[in-house]
Amino acid sequence: IPKRDWSSDVCSSDLLASLLVSLPIAQSQANANERHSRCNLVSSPRSYQRLPYASKEYNKRLARHYLYQKYGQCGAQYVCLVKLWDRESGWSVHAHNPSGAHGIPQSLPGNKMAKFGKDWKTNPSVQISWGLHYIKNRYGSPCNALGHSNRFGWY
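Request: output the structure for the sequence above.
Response:
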């Protein structure tokens, strides 16, 4: 049997090495694309636009949409956000407590949300945008904010 010279073969060691290196990258990209599709599907604007304006379900779906569109988060982070804001305000734009906290995210004082819109007292988009911005800057994620709230009773 004649000996084969593999050095000039298409499947040289350099090509094989580059394929092995690119495989995890391709898999990671495929996972990101799948996650993007799944998150984008559940955060579609159509998912909240047919609901009564500022209803609990409208506000929750709007938050899911913003959480993904603005911060690239969904899934577990959304579940944590729901738990946090269920407890804080029941997702009501009109939630107010004697300390002065107001709205869905219970901004204290409520007028902090005015940076995001002058109709901050009644607009779920303004309140949710402000709340997500606050959570991102202070805690990094809704799950971190929920963890803090669970430990200390506030976030």
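The first helix runs from residue 13 to 42.
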